[in-house]
User: What shape does this take?
Amino acid sequence: MKQRTPDEIRAMADRMRRNAMELAFQAGANGAHLGPALSIIDLCATLYGAVMRVDPKNPAWPDRDRFLLSKGHGSLGYYTALAEAGILTREQLFSFEADGGDLPGQPAMNPSLGIEVSSGSLGLGLSFGVGCALAGRRAGRDSNVYVLMGDGETNEGSVWEAALAAAHYRLGCLVAIVDCNGMQSDGRTSVVMSAGQMPLWRGFGWSTVAVDGHDIRAIYAALRDAGRRPEGTPLAVIARTVKGKGVSFMENNAEWHHNVLTRSRYEAALAELIAASMSR
Amino acid sequence: MININAVNARNWARLGPRGTFGITLLSLAPEIENLLALSADLCNTSGLDRFRAAYPDRFFNAGIAEQNMLGMAAGLAKEGSRVFCTTFATFAAMRACEMVRLHMGYMGLDIKLVGLGAGFSMGMFGNTHYAVEDMAIMRAVPGLRVLSPADCASVAKATEAAARCDGPVYLRLTGVAGNPVVYSEEFDFEIGRAISVRQGRDIAIIATGSMVYESIVAARLLDARGIAASVIDMHTIKPLDTAAIDSVMNTKLMVTVEEHSVIGGLGGAVAEYKSRVRHAPEQLFLGVDDRFSKAGSYKYMLQRHGLTGAKIADSIVRRMDNARSSNSERTPWVDRAAA
Assistant: This one.
């Protein structure tokens, strides 16, 4: 796949945000997880726009990089990236939250759509990624495995079981990205359950890098040389992000963790996003 | 192909179900190339030490982390491997329950989860290590096949059947080293097809796992008391062999026997099916009562819960005596309803 420039990725992320609004509006009374999607959109755009090796014509290509959205409630950030990567058609994308459809609120494994794992229940993706990474090493592939988690998600003990295993098995091709938007369902992570991500991951034997999760160049710099090693220390990318990033009334607002997007709110959000992209 | 004869049946019985599982998997490894084994720090306990020595690149220890084991297995299975996972049945079914539901059920990945030491076989380890709810849990997960072999020869057969089929399986191992032998010659083991191990036209005993042997003992004792009992080895709890149940629908009493809670296991599965049948016999549920009891040795626990051949026979005779006396004292409800 063609590697995009930072400006192209910026534009890609802008479209993803607008698409996410449209999809959430279309979902109507079902509501959608907007806040946690907006915080990961720049990460997903950089991964699918420049970092990851994927073949849109063959989503199940064995040598592809694997992306596992462990925080399944970020699906709008993920589905919109799959569409930008050319893996999902616009029509498929707009089947989001259709009854009985392929793109439910939280992803359902579907290799033909490039969806590697079913997620939604938090704390399961990293172990799954350990398995994928071991399989890649056994097969002699140099594919990377990227697992995107929420910071609240790391409250789950299973994350740390997997973190131990990844370091033990020296899975140099495994990259955990922690979307540190500082919020979880009940409020600020510092209030609900504080966790110092950097020392934790280091203590578990991982390499770490901190990055502004909305700075495309910085994300790219952090991820560009990550992985591609059959043996080595796994890498944790601690991405500082803003929940609801890009829409002022959603930013750092727990109400928008999951909410119904009314027409007036939808129009307000879209106007803001369009203005922001025009001013760039 | 695993073949059963008197010699290996005896040797496996001596090894016990875990050792039999381990050597069977080892023997299948050359042929089934995508077969991997994982354990949650119970490699040796699950008889996999030789497998690990022979195939170091096909064994992964997940540490004392059953949830992680299921997750790793899922990633490996998704990438094309057939992955056996071993841990004690209690941790398999309960600690890692959600991973079982999502990775094995929802995603349908090719994971064979082996529950070691099910029932009371952990003896003095006590209640934390007993698993008498695992079949109820596993049976409720869509897409899972639940196997519960009767003796060590059938552990070998069930392991082979699991290793040769696609998709998720829960393999429940009951009994201990020195397990009694039910099968000492070659027999067909097919997932979902029960085995009739004894004929008798009065009552039918449907048993699973370790209780198959005890039910055969019970049936012999019942013979002496003038009750002819058939015994069915229901080695697959899901999918349930309903044709086998149909074949004994005309008996006076259907008895289910399991080293498992009376809630949700074999008895529950049989009762669910019978509820759809118009003229089904009454059912006697023999298993573990719905309460925690104090721990004890394996034999003690079987005795205490009425799960030895003699106690099974006693329970059946008592039930039949009760049925006879209540029939003579009052009109059965079916007739009352007709009146």
